[in-house]
Amino acid sequence: VLERGRCLGAMEVDFISKDGVPKEAIISVRAGALRRQAPASLNKPFRFSEEEAAGQGLLKFDIFQRIGRGYAVLKPGSDRYKVVLSEEHCMSCEVGVRRLAGGDAVARQPSGDDLSPAMDSVTGVKDAKDY
Questions:
Q1: What is the DSSP letter of 83?
Q2: Of all helices (H) and strands (E), which one includes residue 51?
Q3: Cα(16)–Cα(3) distance, integer angstroms
Q4: CA-based angle 46:49:51, to the nearest 5?
């Protein structure tokens, strides 16, 4: 509930209509630093807890469309993967994946410096399909 630019309590944002928004698009709603995302075809409201919505009198809406997709099949002993996102648009990325100790999982966001420079195994899409 918004009152004079302030948010009071938890919030639920429900789309009453989505004119011109493709069903395959992703809708993103942001309140402060917190973002919720879902496919446009999913007709469920976005919910923000009281803590997440505290003091937010502004909502930001973004519509995203997929321009590429890729997969990496994680293999024991491999920590670096090449992912082809779109052969048509020559898009790919290389990602580093490392297992975290039990308590570190999702507790903190790694900085760019946290990725190990000693990554030596590069696996392509062909290897992922063969796996």
A1: E
A2: helix 50-53
A3: 21
A4: 140
